Amino acid sequence: MKLLKIPYDTPQKLFSIYQPNADYILFSEPFPTPYELIQNSRTNENFSHVITFLAHGLPIREAVWWAVCCASKRTDWNESELNAIQSARAWVHAPDEANRRYAEDMAKKAGLESGAGWAAQSAFWSGGSMIDPDSPEVLPPAYLYAQAVSGCITLTAVLPYGENAEQRYNEFIDIGLNIAMGGNGKVEK
Fold first, then answer.
1. Cα–Cα dist 53/144, whole Å
2. Which InterPro entries has this protein been placed in (predicted)?
């Protein structure tokens, strides 16, 4: 299966942009394509590795969109958390500085204790300066947004008490695969 949005033909090439743990690198060796690694990781319940792998493999907007799609599956967010998700969605639809800074504000208001705040943080870390707009520019490290996307999706899957985590992880990976194949993240159950 070809993942159109992931420009790496082997897992090892994708590993060149982030540092998975040694056990996961070893686990990946028999699988020649990202898709095969993802599916075998799911079978072995290596969910957090799959999330991190996909978050780094997708282009920035698609990765943030994946976070938005996953966070939007939950219905128990408070108002600040809903605003954080909406701010990330706004950035995906119009990735400009105003929406990026709005996402920063919403991430601060929602906090980073839940997936919703991390969705907004991923949009903020998508590019541009990480500090006050009147200060000299300090760009985020490459792929920092992917760490925020991973945080969003993982926390959204497991909080508050780990109930339904396996089901959520699988649903969220399906959404990520849909986006990676060129889809819009809308997956029918």
1. 13
2. DUF6931
Q: Verify that 102 and 17 share a domain, yes or no.
A: no
For the segment 12-65, what is each residue's pLDDT rounded down to a tens digit? Answer: 999 999 999 999 999 999 999 999 999 999 999 999 999 999 999 999 999 999
Number of domains into which the chain is organized: 2
For residues 75 and 152, membership in a common domain is answered with yes
Is the pTM higher than 0.70? The answer reads yes
The per-residue pLDDT for range 93-115, each reduced to its tens digit, is: 999 999 999 999 999 999 999 99
How sure is the predictor about 189, in pLDDT bands with cuts at 50, 70 and 90?
low
Asked whether residue 142 falls in the same domain as residue 169, the answer is yes
| 25 and 83, same domain (yes or no) | no
* Same domain flag for 94 and 53: no
Write out the residue range of the structural domain in which residue 20 sits: 11-57
Residue 83 and residue 46 share a domain: no
